[in-house]
Design brief:
The chain is 5% helix and 50% strand. It is mainly beta. The longest helix has 11 residues, at 246-256.
Length: 342
């Protein structure tokens, strides 16, 4: 039995492990299940683990135990229905939910221990289903399942009730805002202040990145930051807009580099790949207020992992060490405060 209260799956020397953790301390418990390409998603209470592997065409669920062997298989890793690929997973005590895309449109599937060998399609509203679309986010907000329907405009937020172990019941459909053409949400994150979305798109050859937040009460957008790549015209014109100042250009470049987001202690963190971790403060800000945080020994940061259950004191950063081996590093809220000058 470990005295560390939370659980997390992070890479150690290039291999994913289930670990016990508290305030950044790590105690390796077991190798994470699944193939080397597995994506691991813990339930909010840290009691269950969803696993997708084989290029997200197979999924299963495990219960986390208080002592060795630490993991118990509840739903064996099993192929998704033919032609289907998972994009998001949600583990609960009585079910495993997988969102993604099917051969013809977006899809949502459920497996329960009472029917462990079969995937059941969860009905989606007929009027939103469209070829090329996918479910890219699954979040639990109280007793409500929040489904992010993405890729092809229009995009939707679907709300489902969770009646016992039965299939989720659709309750509401909310149209999401759009900020550019060909926009896709590359990472949603359910935080304390809202549902955050990081999206990218292109309009007339100009690529842009957008960070925006939906209020948890009505899912209306209440914050937005955007950055577009700077394009120099072939010929100067008196109608050309004034070039952005250096601080704005730097912030635009930083936001365009981001691939993942997390809300930690009231701060918004963005994984900027080779640029490291970028933070936005806990009050209304402009894009020029983006700040770079120090991450010694960690490079190419592309993901955040939140311990479960989470006390909000920090987050694990995923990236690579100096020898290009996949690894992780703890970032406490105290460091975010110390490194910023807001």
């Amino acid at each position: 039995m470990s005295n560390l209260v939370s659980r997390v799956v992070v890479p150690r020397n290039g291999v994913a492990h289930l670990c016990a953790t508290q305030d950044g301390q790590l105690e390796v418990l077991a190798a994470a299940p699944g193939d080397p390409d597995a994506r691991n998603v813990l339930s909010e209470d840290g009691r269950f683990l969803a696993v997708m592997d084989r290029e997200n065409t197979r999924a299963g669920m495990f219960e986390l135990l208080a002592a060795a062997p630490w993991l118990r298989e509840i739903l064996p890793l099993s192929p998704l229905p033919s032609g289907c690929v998972g994009h998001a997973a949600l583990a609960m005590h009585d079910r495993l939910l997988i969102g993604g895309k099917g051969p013809n449109h977006e899809a949502l599937w459920q497996r329960t221990p009472s029917a462990s060998s079969d995937w059941m399609a969860v009905p989606l509203p007929q009027d939103i289903m469209k070829r090329g679309k996918a479910v890219d986010g699954l979040h639990l907000l109280g007793d409500t399942l929040v489904v992010v329907d993405d890729i092809v405009t229009p995009k939707w937020l679907l709300l489902y009730d969770l009646p016992g172990s039965e299939a989720p019941t659709h309750r509401d459909t909310i149209r999401l805002p759009h900020h550019t053409t060909y926009e896709r949400i590359i990472h949603p994150f359910l935080g304390a202040t809202g549902l955050w979305c990081l999206s990218k798109g292109i309009n007339h050859g100009v690529a842009s990145t957008h960070l925006w937040r939906l209020a948890l009460t009505d899912f209306v957008e209440d914050a937005h930051w955007g950055a577009a790549e700077a394009r120099k015209p072939a010929f100067a014109s008196m109608f050309d807009s004034e070039p952005a100042d250096e601080a704005t250009q730097s912030a635009n470049h930083a936001l365009q580099s981001c691939v993942a987001i997390a809300e930690v202690g009231g701060y918004i963190l963005l994984a900027g790949g080779g640029l490291g971790v970028i933070a936005l403060g806990d009050a209304p800000r402009t894009i020029k207020d983006l700040q770079f945080l120090r991450t010694p020994g960690l490079y190419g940061i592309d993901a955040f992992v939140v311990p479960a259950p989470w006390d909000g004191r920090g987050v694990f950063l995923l990236g690579y060490d100096a020898e290009d081996i996949r690894t992780s590093s703890w970032l406490p809220v105290s460091t975010i405060i110390a490194d910023s000058d807001w």
